[in-house]
Design goal:
The protein is of the alpha/beta class. The chain has 10 helices and 11 strands. Strands 1, 2, 3, 4, 5, 6, 8, 10 and 11 form a 9-stranded mixed β-sheet that branches. Strands 7-9 form a two-stranded antiparallel ribbon.
Length: 270
Amino acid sequence: MKLSITIVNYNSARLTHSCLESLLTQKLPAETSIVVVDNASSDESVSFLRSDFPEITVISNEHNLGLARAVNQGFGHSRSDYYLTLNPDIIALPGSITTLINYLEKNPTVGICSGKLMSPNGELQPSCFRWYTPMTVVYRRTWLGRTARGRKVVSDFLMKDFDHASARDVDWLMGSCLMVRGKALAQVGGMDERFFLYFEDVDWCRRFWEQGWRVSYLPTAEFSHFHQQSSRTQALFGMVFNWTTREHIRSALKYFFKYRGAPGPRIETV
């Protein structure tokens, strides 16, 4: 198999439908498999997607297994040269998939890459970042982010000093859209399933770097992203009343505990 595409669905049938339509209008390799892993949706996602897309595989889980485990489940469905995971709220713009594949074929030391994410109105969305530190989380979620130091730390984290118009190696890439080289996946392994939601992408990219594989951002591969930052509710109120905020904090704690607070690997930008 040349390419295996996995989409994890959870009560997002309409978004997943649009994502699939954007993929099926692409010029994909002849040997391409598309798998939707449904994490126990309470709506009619499974029957809806199976009836509208009989050519794809829909895996229906009895329980919500979390994002990382579902991605691994989809990737395990077939052996491929390249693997692509997409969130349901992604629309692949013309030529984007081929551009990522060609980039990996021309750059054999790159293990994982992604393209440029844009809002439906064409506004650039942050999709590549510098490593988290514990204070990054604090500055992004409390009033301390409005201090001079907080603004600088957050700006560096979001790579606001980078124009996002040229290809370059980065610390880590948002998991909404990731293409992985099969050879690198076999060496590094799949996503860490201890992360139910959030930080699985940070951890994964870090492990690629630690195993000697580059992580690259490619702006010529463009995707539209209907991103809803439901975890960005601020401070104590958000932590208490917003499940996704609490999950983000839990995943951050797991990540820092896993690496004992050690900084991410230093990388040489190529």
